[in-house]
Amino acid sequence: MGLTFDDELSDSGNGSYAHGINGDPANIYGFGTWTDGPVAVSYLAEHLGVPLTDYAFGACCGGGSFGATINNTYNAAAQDDGQPAPSSSAPTPVWEGEPKNALFARNIPDRIRYNAEHLIELEAPYVFVANIYSKHKTPVMTTFLCPDGSCVDTWGGIIQSTNYAIKAALKSLRYASKLIYYDVFGFMVGVMEKKNS
Which of 135, 176, 128, 166 is nearest to 152 (CA)? Predict the structure, then answer.
């Protein structure tokens, strides 16, 4: 049994669809080029020939209800459910993202290695690890997150350097023979570069 937390398997996903920010045309998420997370998990499970359990419907960034928080209507009670946001009785802070992204990028290789090793010690026959996908090249990036394109190369560089560190950390794993490493970054770059062909 695999556990897949899949919001990031789609470029805009369920939350974006639910909140009307999934692009134009809105017939399918991300300008008709991607799928939502649960469908991506089903597709992956079919190709791997293993059962996977989906544990996501926008919950990672949830707000007062579910899904993306870009246009969620917050109130004081709902703020415990999601990320910081202004309320009518407070100053107006501007949310610019998690300030510990650099720390996350430094720590994630060791965390993944530890978790992979722990699963194998618990007698998992194999552990499948996909690296961080190429979000900087998705349509939602230049449409909603970085319209002038100025941050695309920076994001790409950070993602790639983190992926190199993840791969290096996994190579040092004493159970490396039980590890299945998947370069989702490289695969998705190839898909996106050929999406119009």
Answer: 135
Comparing 28-32, 138-142, 159-163, 172-176, the range with the smallest average pLDDT is 28-32
5, burial (CB in 10 Å: exposed 0-12, middle 13-18, buried 19+): middle
Among the listed residues 101, 114, 18, the one whose alpha carbon sits nearest the alpha carbon of residue 66: 18
Describe the crossing of helices 152-171 and 101-121 by its angle, rounded to 10 degrees: 30
State the residue range of the domain holding 136: 98-197
SS3 for 55? coil
As a whole number of angstroms, the distance between CA 79 and CA 64 comes to: 7
Same domain, yes or no, for 122 and 63?
A: no
116-160 residue pLDDT tens: 898 899 888 888 888 888 878 777 677 767 788 888 888 888 889
One-letter amino acid at 179 equals L
Residue 15: which of 72, 67, 56, 81 has the closest Cα? Answer: 67
Does residue 172 share a domain with residue 159? yes
Model pLDDT for residues 49-88, shown as the tens digit of each residue: 776 655 444 334 433 343 333 333 434 444 444 444 444 4
**CB-count exposure of residue 75 (10 Å: 0-12, 13-18, 19+):** exposed
Q: Hey, what are 95's tokens?
A: 């949310």
**Total domains present in the chain:** 2
